[in-house]
């Protein structure tokens, strides 16, 4: 079966800096793929290439058997590619429901559809009790869940998550991983998740893609990644694998 979303030979250069160098990534149909690597490895740049925020210098992006390299962000969103950001970026003076409705409107949806879709996303993420709370009044962990709900309002085929557990404590990170797993089971979308918490990623993902200095270091199952001496010595460290 062909991959749901993929890049081939993607290179991104910022002036003299090569942020990605000939990267081929594949997300299988209904797979959870982890994207890991040290700071500056190119993870967010790759997510930007997949979601349309960054045009690759060279290389191609394919989704659902179509070449989408030249598509802009709204077109990709309408086709079923949704993403969250490291900085949650909620509208602080709007309620949780309004933040989610705004995501639908922002992608060209109508108000009636916005309410239905936003309400559904809040149910998926157990956020119904916060629907009328202003975003600025929410604890950080809940704000991150709202960020994910916003990404789900589009009912995506692919959800791209940029460090969903950043800034969360261990219990909240574990809860976030359970939420990602539940989204995957209930909605059936493919998911790519960037995460620095290695045990979380190894426990959550079907496969893991390791980037280092813009280059693919390894792609494998969590067990293969755990057992790979080059990955461990490159940056993980023995204790990170426990
Ligand atoms: N718009 C930009 N202009 C110039 N350089 C950039 C730009 N975006 C990213 N970079 C550089 O590209 C490299 C890869 O950055 P990127 O943010 O993709 O890494 P990352 O793996 O997501 O890092 P982190 O884990 O710290 O978020 C870094 O050296 C970064 O400074």
How would you summarize the topology of this molecule?
Blueprint: E1 5-14, E2 17-27, E3 32-36, H1 43-51, E4 58-63, E5 66-67, H2 73-79, E6 81-83, H3 96-106, H4 111-124, H5 140-152, E7 158-162, H6 170-187, E8 190-194, H7 198-204, E9 207-212, E10 215-220, H8 222-226, H9 229-236
Parallel strand pairs: 3-8, 3-9, 6-7, 7-8
Antiparallel strand pairs: 1-2, 1-4, 4-5, 9-10
Helix pairs in contact: 3-4, 3-5, 4-5, 6-7
Bound molecules: adenosine-5'-triphosphate.
Adenosine-5'-triphosphate binds next to β2 and α1.
InterPro entries: AAA+_ATPase, ABC_AA/LPS_Transport, ABC_transporter-like_ATP-bd, BCA_ABC_TP_C, P-loop_NTPase
Keywords: ATP-binding, Nucleotide-binding, Transport
Pfam family, one: ABC_tran
* Elements, N to C (H/E): EEEHEEHEHHHEHEHEEHH
User: What gyration radius follows from the Cα positions, in whole Å?
Assistant: 18 Å
- CATH architecture label name of the domain at 1-71 and 191-241: 3-Layer(aba) Sandwich
- Poorly predicted residue ranges: none
CATH topology of the domain at 1-71 and 191-241: Rossmann fold
Count, helices: 9
Q: What is the assigned CATH homologous superfamily of the domain at 1-71 and 191-241? A: P-loop containing nucleotide triphosphate hydrolases
Protein name: ABC transporter ATP-binding protein
InterPro entries: AAA+_ATPase, ABC_AA/LPS_Transport, ABC_transporter-like_ATP-bd, BCA_ABC_TP_C, P-loop_NTPase
Organism: Actinomadura montaniterrae
GO molecular function: ATP binding; ATP hydrolysis activity
Task: Give structural notes.
By secondary structure, this protein is α/β, with parallel strands linked by helices. The chain has a domain at 1-71 and 191-241: P-loop containing nucleotide triphosphate hydrolases (Rossmann fold), CATH 3.40.50.300. Helices cover 38% and strands 24% of the residues. It is built from 9 helices and 10 strands. It has helices at residues 43-51, 73-79, 96-106, 111-124, 140-152, 170-187, 198-204, 222-226, 229-236; strands spanning 5-14, 17-27, 32-36, 58-63, 66-67, 81-83, 158-162, 190-194, 207-212, 215-220. The strands form 2 sheets. The protein has a 6-stranded mixed β-sheet, sandwiched between helices. α6 links the parallel β7 and β8. The longest helix has 18 residues, at 170-187. It is globular and about 50 Å long. The protein starts with a strand and ends in a 6-residue tail after the last helix. The structure holds adenosine-5'-triphosphate. Residues 14, 17, 19, 37, 39-45 line the site of adenosine-5'-triphosphate.
